[in-house]
């Protein structure tokens, strides 16, 4: 199971790097094209139109390069806005999940005894009792049986997915914090998981009564969820930079702050852009 999780994490990372590389190369092409446009005004009729256009010559239409930059801006702006909406919707969920987990500290029955230490990056309010952990993973019911007898209170539950309410119902009298921790190892950031994924995790936990495998998988699961959000934010920031570059080339190509970013946002400052607006 750990091997599968590591492979999945590596694949996700590779996809992110590939997307970043593609976007970065695209940004370089855009930037290089802009520099070439600025340095070859005398050799191309397209760029030769810009000074006349900026001078207000009514016989000169907006250069095609500026029109292309404006279309490019809207493309990146719409894409970044959609991604930002997805990212914003995740933060309340992350906060709510953290709040719920924190509220489970000291709640419900517990066998006490030795504890399974959890990494602080798991953001759990306390370690998990080893006896509470064993009681759950040694449940005689299989995951399929828990799914079959569990509540069908959602569309995915009707489709045969293991839901958190079904997992709780299938482990009566168990410690709530331990239940949440074990479920989080195979359901990254959600309350639904495929039964075979959950069963494979439970089987690996049974083979390790010490709880080390469980603690490691919980950490990997949490880091995977956090890294997905941070990667999305990074790509959104990159998209915003490209969108701003396109806006600069499309509406205010003579604004001096562009050559000194990010300090140009302060001096001469964003508020000076209207002075150079076309």
Strand content: under 5%
How far is the N terminus from the C terminus? 58 Å
Order of helices and strands: HHHEEHHHEHHEHH
What global shape is seen? elongated
Low-confidence stretches: 1-48
Radius of gyration: 27 Å
Q: Which percent bin holds the helix content?
A: 55-70%
Largest sheet: 2 strands, antiparallel
Count of individual helical segments: 10
Mean pLDDT: 77
Number of strands: 4
Oligomer: single chain
Spatially, the strands of the biggest sheet line up as 1-2
Secondary structure category: mainly alpha
What is the compact description of this entry?
This protein has ten helices and four strands, in the order H-H-H-E-E-H-H-H-E-H-H-E-H-H. By secondary structure, it is mostly helical.
Descriptive overview:
The protein has 278 residues and is mainly α. The strands form 2 sheets. Strands 1-2 form a two-stranded antiparallel ribbon. Strands 3-4 form a two-stranded antiparallel sheet. Helix content is 63%, strand content 3%. The protein contains 10 helices and 4 strands, in the order αααββαααβααβαα. The longest helix has 40 residues, at 64-103. The protein has helices at residues 2-39, 45-54, 64-103, 130-137, 143-149, 155-158, 164-169, 176-186, 195-206, 212-251; strands spanning 115-116, 128-129, 162-163, 192-193. The chain starts with a helix and ends in a 27-residue tail after the last helix.
